[in-house]
Amino acid sequence: MGQTLAIMYGEATSLSWWSSAMQGQKLDRLHFQWEVGVSPLKMLHRLRFQGWFSIAGIAFMTFVGLEALIQTASSTTSVILSYQAQFNTTIPNAFPAGLSGILASEHHGTLDTAYFTPTFLQVLQNYTAQSPIAMEVDGCSSTASESCGFNVQGLGFQYDCTASRLTTQPSNGTSRNTLFEVYFDLEAATRERGTVPASGGWKINLNTAWKDSINSSGSVLTVRNCSLTPALVEYSVNVTAQKVILQPPRSAVNWTSNSTADQTSTLLTDKVTKLLPLLEYDQNTTNFGAEFEFGLGTYSTMGGIALAFQSIFGSSVSAKQDPTNPKGAILTVQGAFVAPYAQFPAGTDNEKVFTNTFASPMDQLMSNIRDMMFRTSMVVAQNNVTDWIWRNDTVDSAETRLNAVPTNNRPVSNITAPGRIQRTQIVYTTDKTVLGAGIGLMFLALLLMLPLYWGYWRLGREVSMSPLEIAKALHYSTIKDPETDALVPYSLLDVKEQPDQPRQYASNLSGHELVKFLGKVDVRYGEVSPNVLGIGLSDFTSAARRDEKYI
Question: Is the pLDDT of residue 124 over 80?
Answer without folding.
Answer: yes
